[in-house]
């Protein structure tokens, strides 16, 4: 089942009907088994045959932090090595890709995240900005993955490529992340064959498409989560972007007005414009 955060509160999609869920969004992240809670939930409003309208669906985040995992795909490793070659950091990314310890970084707090249909922000001091479509883990306070959503990790490749120590500036700023449209709540691991697709549109025309799959991610999710929660606490839970395997060619850069569509099988499509 898919859980949405709407302007009217949590909403769960089950058997093509939508049910209002009592309680606060943070309560769901805090529960040891949100899936069981949703299955046993008492319906508080009559089910509707129609999905929530887009303007009512907001990013599935409240008090959670958003973190990212880098260089989890070979395609990302190659791209990062190429962009940082002149800065002398290309070897770093190959070593991270092969290491046991993953690259983990803080991506965003809730006020920097936009939801479905929201406007993402392109940094004014960057000339090489790309979307990064990422399967995103919903993790409760105990470090248990209870669901999955779609993430767009906007990245300034020129800033990171100039010096790896500039990573926070390349990754974290207002409107730097998008999440949604909802969280697929399930006890089952996401199937390895799950497809991830990216479609970038400019003036209504598709200018780049790409696909990858969860099977291309090198590091197991359990390893990413264990390192993230090691000697750390997330009282409200956490959302972890698991890296990107789709990289636009050359010096492709997003422009204001571009529309980015990310589709992940079983979850849906996240659509955002750039501003």
Q: Could you characterize the architecture of this molecule?
A:
- This protein is α+β, with helices and mostly antiparallel strands and about 280 residues long.
- The chain has two domains: about 1-55, no CATH class; about 55-275, Fumarylacetoacetate hydrolase, domain 2.
- Helices cover about 20% and strands about 35% of the residues.
- The chain is built from seven helices and 18 strands.
- The chain has helices at about 25-30, 35-40, 75-85, 90-100, 155-160, 165-170, 220-230, and strands at about 1-5, 10-15, 15-20, 55-60, 65-70, 105-110, 115, 120, 130, 135-140, 145-155, 155, 175-185, 195-200, 205-215, 240, 260-265, 270-275.
- Strands 1, 2, 3, 4, 5, 6, 7, 10, 11, 13 and 16 form an eleven-stranded mixed beta sheet that branches. Strands 8-18-17-14-15 form a five-stranded mixed beta sheet, with no helix packed on it. It has a two-stranded antiparallel ribbon with strand order 9-12.
- β2 and β3 (about 15-20) form a beta hairpin.
- The two termini are about 30 Å apart.
Layout of SSEs?
Layout (H helix, E strand, L loop, with lengths): L1 E5 L2 E6 L2 E4 L4 H6 L3 H6 L17 E2 L6 E6 L3 H10 L6 H9 L4 E6 L4 E2 L4 E2 L8 E2 L2 E7 L5 E9 L1 E2 H6 L4 H5 L5 E9 L9 E8 L2 E9 L7 H9 L8 E4 L17 E6 L3 E7 L1
Parallel strand pairs: 5-16, 7-13, 8-18
Antiparallel strand pairs: 1-2, 1-4, 1-13, 2-3, 5-6, 9-12, 10-11, 10-16, 11-13, 14-15, 14-17, 17-18
């Amino acid at each position: 089942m898919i859980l949405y955060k709407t302007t009217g509160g949590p909403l769960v999609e089950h058997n093509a009907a939508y049910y209002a869920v009592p309680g606060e969004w943070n309560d769901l992240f805090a529960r040891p088994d949100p899936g069981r809670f949703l299955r046993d939930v008492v319906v508080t409003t009559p089910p509707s045959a129609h999905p929530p309208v887009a303007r009512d669906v907001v990013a599935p985040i409240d008090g959670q932090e958003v973190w990212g995992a880098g260089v989890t795909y070979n395609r990302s490793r190659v791209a990062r090595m190429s962009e940082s070659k002149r800065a002398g950091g290309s070897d770093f990314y190959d070593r991270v890709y092969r290491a046991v310890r993953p690259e983990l970084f803080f991506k965003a707090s809730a006020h920097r995240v936009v939801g479905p249909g929201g406007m993402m922000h392109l940094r004014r001091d960057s000339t090489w900005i790309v979307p990064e479509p990422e399967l995103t883990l919903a993790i409760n306070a105990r470090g248990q993955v209870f669901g999955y959503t779609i993430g767009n990790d906007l990245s300034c490749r020129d800033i990171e490529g100039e010096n790896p120590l500039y990573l926070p500036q390349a990754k974290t700023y207002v409107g730097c992340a998008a999440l949604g449209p909802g969280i697929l709540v399930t006890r089952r691991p996401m199937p390895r064959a799950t497809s991830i697709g990216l479609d970038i549109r400019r003036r209504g025309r598709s200018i780049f498409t790409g696909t990858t799959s969860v099977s291309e991610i090198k590091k197991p999710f359990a390893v990413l989560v264990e390192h993230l929660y090691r000697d750390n606490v997330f009282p409200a839970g956490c959302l972890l972007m698991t890296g990107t395997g789709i990289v636009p060619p050359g010096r492709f850069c997003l422009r204001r007005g571009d529309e980015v569509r990310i589709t992940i099988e079983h979850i849906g499509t996240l659509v955002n414009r750039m501003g």
